[in-house]
Structures are given as C-alpha cells and as structure tokens.
C-alpha cells in the first residue's frame, strides 16, 4: 500500500472512533434523601407479633430494593446482639382471617407454627417485623436496648442508614392495662367529681361505655362504679370466661343480661353458660388481626352486654355496657365486671 | 384582492419568447420516454460549450418536439427531471429522435441542500428524495400523510383521522423527552422537522403549544399545500445536510419544491378526485332492554341492599315502561356517516429557460366520518422565474391558501363522537329539552374556522463577476387563524356560548449570500458561499369566551359585561411572542473530479429567545464523500452504476423555549399603600444562561447501484446526541419559584437506515416494476438528567426517564393474570390480611393479580415497574410501482415494530361498563376473555364486580400495555393511461384515470382499533378520531 492509503485508513478509523460514545452505566436511582419517615426509637411490645410500618420514603428511588439489617448490636456494650435473630416459635397466617370462621379448628387451620427470629426487615419494603418473643430472651426497657443499621441495595447503588434504635418493652398481656408501660407501676386515675375536690385512686379498668344502667330509681351508673378485672388461670388454655359480680361480690346470673347477643359477643365458640359464668373457646390473641369484623374494629375486640326493663313512668330502658379490649397472650382468661352498686333488673 | 388578481394576470400571460439564434443548420428533434415512447414535454435542451457550462438553447413542447439552430457538429445535452441526462451529437442531421431513459440510479438528479441545488454525486449528507410520482393519486388533506413509509428514518404517524389535522412526524428517533400534561392528555414536546417550502422555512406546527387543549383552528400550513403542486420532497436527516438551515433544522429538514413551468407551450393540467370516506367498523354496543338488564343484573349480583335500593332511585333503570326511558338509541350510527368528497386541481405552466411560470389552483373538500367535521382547502399559488440574461435570475412566488375546518365538538385529535362519552342507549327522553348535552354539543355546534396563509418570496441572483454570484431571498409568510364557534343553549347548560379565536403569525425572512464557484483544470471544483440570514417572527393569539347569549339565533358579537363574559388571553405558551434571530453562515465545498468531495459548513445563530448571557450559538459541520466507482479499476465495470461512501459530522441548534424562559416577566400585583405593585412573576424562574439545544450527529453512508439501476442500496448509520436538552427542574419552595428550565439533560440516539430498490425487469421490458423497501432501527439512550439524577418521573409518575436506558419508559403496575379463586390470593403471614390495594381493597377471585414488587402485601406506588417504551424502535415502509402497457398498479405501506402502547381506550370502556348508574354507552364485552366464575383462567378481571376497591381495571398496568407493531397498506392505486393516439383526437396530451383505496389493510396484533392513531406517548384514547378508509376515483388530464 502507498502511504496515502495508510493515511486514508487512519483517517477513517479516527472518524469512527470519535463517534463512539461512552454510555452511562445502567443503574437504578437511589436518592440521597431516601429515608425512613419514622426513625425514632422503635419500642415494640414483646409477646406480640406485629408489623411496624416504617413508611420508607423512597424520594423517587427505583424499586425493587433490597433492605437488610446490618450490624445489630447491644447499644451499651456494642457487642453483636445475636438474640434478636434467635428463632422463636410463633404462629403465622397461612390463609386470611375473615371473622367468619365457624370453629376454633377452622381458625387454627389457617395458622401454622413457625420458628422465626424476633427481628426481621421485609426485604422489599423495609417494614420491620417484630415477632412474639419473650422478655426472657430480649432485653427490655429500662435497658438501653439495641442499635442497628439498615442497608438498602438496588441495581448499582447501595446505601446504609445508620443507628436505628430498638428498645423493646416488656409484655403487656391485655389492654386496657392497669400498669404503666415503662415503669410497670400501677397507674393513677384522676377524677373530678361533680362537686368536691379532685381525687386520685389507683387505676382500674372501666367499661368503655355504659348507658341507662340504674342502681336506684333515679341514679345511673357512672363508669367509676364498675371495674373490670382480667385474670389468667392457666397459660396454656384457650378459653375466655365472663363473670359479673354485684356490690357484695356475689355472682350475677349472666341470664339477667337478657338483651345480650351471647352468640355474637365475640369470635368464640362452644358457649357454656352457668348461673355465674359464660365461657367461650377462643383463639388468641383477641382480636386475631386488625381486620374490621363483627367482633372487632381498630385492633380491639368489643363486647356489649345489655338488659331491658321497664323504667320509671313505664319507659322501656335498654341498659347496656361494653368493653373494648385486647388479649395478646393465650391462656384460660376471665374478664370480671364488678358492679359497686347492685344494678336494678326489675321493672319499676 | 384587486391587486392580487392583477399580479395573477401578469404571471399567467406575460410570457416572452425571445430566442435569438444565429447558427448554421436547423434541427428538429423529438424526445420520448424510453419506456412507453410517450413524448416528453418540457425537456431542457442544452448546447455543450467547451470549457464552460452548457448553454440552454431550447425546451420541448407539448408534443415533445424542439426546433433549434446549431452548428452541424454540435453536441446537445438533454435534461429532464427523473430521467437520465443524455448527450447526443447532431452529426449534421436535421431530425433527431431521442429516447430518454428514466433515471434508474437517481444519482444525477439534483437535490436542494443548504439552499443550493447540487447533484447527488456531490452531496455528503444523508438526503432522500420523494418525487411527485410517489405521492400522486391519493387525495389527502395534509401532504405529510403521503410521506409516510417513504423514507427510512422519517417516522410519520397519523395520530388522528380528523380532516385537516396533522399527525406527528419525527426524524431519527427522539429529540425531546420532556412530557407535559398528564393522563390521557400527556404529550411529548413536538419534535417536528423544519419544512422549507420553495426556499422559505415554514413552521409546520399549528396550535401544538397547547397540547390536546388546542385553541383555534390548529390547521398546519402543510395542509394548505396542494399535493398535486409538489415536484419533489427532499428529506434531510443528518447534521451536515441540515446545518445550513440553522437553528430550526436540528430535528431534520424537509424541503418541498413546487412545480415550475418547463414547456414553451403552455401546459394545462387537471387532476380531480371524487372520494368516499367510510367509517371504520364501530363498536358492538348493548342497547335497549339488554342494556337495562345488564345494568340491573350487575347491581342485583352485588347482593347489597343499598345498591339494590339505588335501582329505584335511578329512573332510567327502574322505570322501563316510561317512554321517557324506553329507548334503544344507536348513538354511534348518529355520529358516523359515509361522506362523498372531491378535490380539483388545475395548473397552468409554461415558459422556457428565460422565463417560465406556473399557476396552480386547488380546491379540496372533505367531510369527516364524524358529522360536523371536515376540511376545505382553497389555494392558489404561482411562481415565475425570469432570467433576462445569463447573469441575472429573478424568481418570485406567491401562494395564498384558505383552510376551512369543521371541528365538531372536538379539538382535532379527539372528538366525543368518536367514543369516549357517548350516551346510554336508554336516552334521550322524548322532549327537545331532554337532549343529551354532549351529543347536541357535537352535532349542533356551529363552527366557522378559517386559516389564511399567504406566503411570498422574491429571489434575485446576479453574477457580478464570472463565478461570483450575489443572491438575496426575501420572504414573508402571514398566517391568520380565526375561529367563531357558537354553542347552542341546550349543549351548554341552557346558556348559549360563544368562543372566538383570533390569531396571526407572520414571519419575515431574508437570506443574502455571496457564492463563488469555479472549476480549475477541469477537475478541481470549488464552491464557496457566505450568507446572512435574518428572521422576525411574531405571534399574537386571542381568545374570547362568552356565555349567556340571548338565544340560539343571534351569534354575537356580544358586548362585554361581567354577567356573561369570560375574556381571556391565551397563556404565554403561545399567546404572544416575537422572536428575532440573525445568523451568519459560510460553506465551502471542494471536489476532485467528482471523486473526492469535501464540504465544510459553519453557522452562527443569535436568537432573542436564548438566554441573555448565551446569545450566540455555533454550528459547524463537515462532510466527505468518496465515489469509488470513479476509481480506474472500477470505471470499466459495466455492472456498477455507482458506489460511494459518505461521512458527515455536524452540530445543529434548536431553539426550545420562548423569551420568558430566559427573561421571566413581571406581573401587576395589586396595590400597596395606593401604589401599584409590579413584581416578578413567580412560578417559572427565568434562566439567563439558557442555551439552545445542541444536536451533534455523525453519519456514515454507503450508496450503491448495480446492473443498470436494477438493484440500488442506500445504507446510513448514525449517532445523534442532543446536548443541553431542556428539562424542567423543580425548585425548592424557598426560592419563591416552583421550577426553572435548565439545559441539564442529554440524549443519545443511534441507528441504522437501509433503503433497497429492485427493478426485476429490464429497462427495455414492457413491464416496469420498481420495488422499494426501507427500514430504520433507532435506539435512544438518556445520557444525563438535571442534578446528576439517574431517573425522573413525569405525567403523574407514569412515564420515566432513566439515565443509561431508553429515554422514555412506561412505568406501570405489573399484571400477572387474574386470581382464579380466593385461595390464590397471598396472605400476609404477619398481619393475616389478604394482599390488598391500598387499605381496604382486598383482592378476591376475579380481581387482577398485580406483582407485589416490594413484598409488603399491599399494592402501592412502589410496585410500579419500568415496563416498555412508547418509542417505536423499528420503522419503515415499502412501495411497489408496476406498469404494464397502459396499466399501472401501485401500492405502498408503512411498517412499525416494537412499540408498547397503553390501551387506555379499553380501560376506559370497562370503566363505563362498571358504572351501572352512569349515563354511558355499554360496549359488548364478548370479545374479551374475562373472569366469569371460580377457577376461571382469564386474561381480564371480573367486569361485573363494580364495587371492588381493588381498581382492577386501572389503565396504568401491563394488562393494557400491548405491542403496537403493525404493517399497514397506505394505499393501492390502479390506473389506466389512455392511448396517446386516442387522447390527441380530443386535443389532450395525456389522459389517465385511476382508482385508489387508502388504508385498505392493517395487520396488527394490537387489540384496539388502530395502533397508529394513538398519542405520541403511545396512549390509545377512547375518543381518538378514527382513521377512515377511503375509496377514490381520479382523473388526470393534460392539455
């Protein structure tokens, strides 16, 4: 070849090369502002399985992302906190709870026992799962608790969000609860009577609502006149007993509450009614899920009792009272309503 | 007007036939076409002069004959467009018959590049020509439709079938990725190429700045150009070819040249068409009792007391015996119609090399398949070219067009009659006042919509010294848009309404150049030019909206009162603007014996709309070409007609915004202490550093033609990078502004274009068959986004721009089928909830199954995934041109592959179906594979469960994303040309009759009506104006 040919070749090659462009890397977007909207100290209550919606704000970042917990440690000592990931035996749903199940076995068939760690992060969404671990395993308040980091990965990016705090609380077996969540001291009730000074008494549970209940011809019950007590007889059973006591702590026959829809009182089965108690076979926790059903709303079961009588002047009085509650741990539980005055069941 | 007529007379009849001949012998010649031996009128006859340019000495008349006096040994050169030039020696003959071969190779034809005519051999850029032959025979309201599928890399979509409206056109992929608007109305910034009509740049967009809410007539200037008057269309794709067109050429340039007079004997051509538009097949709706039963059943099946009670509160459901509701109206039938239309075109042309003229008169009348829509065109244009001596050329041009449009109730791209809100068949009630508003609005709205366009230029060239020419071209383009719409009281909540639009655009343009060209030693050709360009473009648009007019008979004007007037200007997007721009450009071309060609161009543009700190922008370009067939070792190869390789590089600029984007504006903001406050307009922050967008292109080309033009190939590979791409950048609220425009984004396109031509039969055969196939593959990659972001979402988070990927992606919920049974729905093991949409939309059997991307058992925004692109990756077309004796059969088509559409229309249609109480049409759903009962494997979810909160029929899911590939036959024409012997008996030069079917076939897997009539973002709207099938009968006569 002549030198001109070489020159030509070089020219053509150099032109071809100039047109080539280095294309940017194909990668996802992970915003520097992507973060958890809730990032205070997480304080899950032990003994319950719950989902903590972290409200991860992606700030336009590309999904799918993979979240993982890194460097979980005891805050004070800085040592790895292996107990957070130690498997505990818990129940998980296989099928959805609808509130329409007809028997205890039908409900139980929808759940399985699994071994899973106390703390887990949902890989795709960053929500935290806290499973029902006992406080014998996990350090609880007032211990400073744990700290951990969350790693977020999507295609081509990685970010670590540091120093999430975790300070679990001891079990609260039922709600409403008489003891303070943190100190476990008996809570104090402050009352302002219609006349007279403010007084403080140890906290007891009162009915969530109460209406048209008379203890004299012209005196209505106020909620302070009724106390509710939760009691667990054994930790392995699955029954719930309702008891009603009069001012002398004698049992009131449940049949006196003649307006009560006993079969729709709660999602329980196999009702056994005696002169002093009403017992159901139930599945714990109560309520089973946060679903709005005939028996529960907003994460609380509600039960309503009532009776009907002819009041003063021939007026029909449909008296009723009820309780919104939750029980988180299994057992043979009883709920006792203690009336500090004797309710009038007779017609006036 | 009077003056105008005078000018017309002058143009028509002031022919001059001055030919001074002083040579030795008289030669009588006849020129015929080699293929069918018909005479060719208008062939230029040149006398070859040693060492100089050939000298024009004559032109053939209507019978293809010429008479000249030349030296006995003279050599004549005959030139005619689309034919091979031929050189013949006179050899002392008194009579010569010459047959010219059609130019198979298209190499010698001249194209217009950078305002100068050049032979194709010396063009270094990528230019494709469409000739008049390709676009005849099909009556259309907009010539763009005729270019569809003709040029590799030019992607034209008929996004609407409304007469007089323009679809979309783009060259070589995406040039813009910014999406404005939202939902169905989301649109991409228009990226139309620049049209240059007879040397005058014309903005083909009309009203596009308003998106789908178009104001005024929205008639493109292209709709006012009669297709019959077009001589050729040159499509320029790469930067080198477009660089001299400057700032507006970055999206490619399309140069349209109209016909000129060529024959000494005046030629009168008539072309007429009668054509019939047929509505497309309409949807199969449910009517009358069936409709009522359908609605009532759907409600009863909910087993919900409240719902069932609602039946009795909705009269049209419960009161079936009442004649008020006892109807079964086929609404579609009322909207749609078969229409009979016509177009006529007469052109008179004549003249010789010294003076020639052409006048073309056109009338086009079309009524759309939806009532109360249509388009009429009246146009008159003429040009005159005067060369009093070889050194001076003067040409003038005047074109006047009037486009009248009927818009129905729609805005062009859409029309209610086309489907979106047709009423239930149970309506209307039996009284005048029980009308259905949207129907009355569409049918009885009175439209008087006019677009006047007057375009004129004067072009003077003077050769001041040998080889040195001065040239100036001044043009003025004035467009007036007017619309008066009257909405009768019934259609407008009992208040007659008036909409008035008045807009004007004018464009004054001048280009002045000094050209130098010379040939040294017979081999070194040099062409050099310097020119300046100046443009002033003004726009002024106004709108008035009034309601509460006195009655349906008085259509205004009404005075302004606060009671019935809502007077509004049009937002800054297009209401008023004035743009000044100046440019300086230089161009040098050199070729060595037409073998090596090199071109340098440089242009600097200063624009009033660019930021004050960045006024000037430069666009250099270079191109080289190597015609390897001129190498010695190939010169004697008979099989090779020509072959070349080309390379070009260039930068083009594109104005992107208006003056407000760089300067901002001030508002009067009320009073403070009795003093009027004037404050900066908040919202869009002005950016004084705003630059025009910069488009850099590399182009590699290869052309070859072998076996006497029987196989031709053109191949182009290119890269096209858009720098400084405009992007809206949101600002922190603390700035006081909400957003600003920046030049932060950039986009890269690369692709390949192939065009192949075959001629299976020999040129001497009686059968002449030409097949052309072309295709273009384009990929786009987004290089950067503002603020180093790697992705951005627009249109309510349904369109994603991602760096490193294709620039536009659909961002949708991923559908994975339909739940067969309740047990198929996954359950969150922690909460015990079923998979759900939002808080309460629990999925059940028959609901759609969305992919739970983030695994939280809730369908939410983060489950959306990038799932397809609305940008077509492969486009192309094909054409076949077959003649045998007097018969011809032509067809052409368009191909588009790999484009993802969203069938919003189906989603919307299902929404109607799922609203039992709403007054909408129910379309029969027998064509869908939907879920009917437990265990069903279906494609579409349960259409009856209208109370579900799962939103299973949402549009933005992959269920409705479909492949929009199609192969379309644009038109088939069958023609017959009468024997010349017969037609000349009636003193006709030529007579041709033909019949054409447009849009006869469409092959597609797409489930919607037409994958082409969708928005540029690939959304199929239910209210798209459908594309109709047309049958036309045409007649061409030449006297």
UniProtKB/TrEMBL annotation, chain A:
Pfam families: DUF5007. It comes from the Bacteria. This is DUF5007 domain-containing protein. It comes from Chitinophaga arvensicola.
TrEMBL record, chain B:
It is found in: Cell outer membrane. Pfam families: CarbopepD_reg_2 (PF13715), Plug (PF07715). InterPro entries: Beta-barrel_TonB_sf, CarboxyPept-like_regulatory, Plug_dom, Plug_dom_sf, TonB-dep_OMP_SusC/RagA, TonB-dep_OMP_SusC/RagA_CS, TonB-dep_rcpt-like. One of its GO terms (cellular component) is cell outer membrane. Residues 121-253 form the TonB-dependent receptor plug domain. Keywords: Cell outer membrane, Membrane, Transmembrane, Transmembrane beta strand, Transport. It is a multi-pass membrane protein. Its main location: membrane. It comes from the Bacteria. Belongs to the TonB-dependent receptor family. This is TonB-linked outer membrane protein, SusC/RagA family. It comes from Chitinophaga arvensicola.
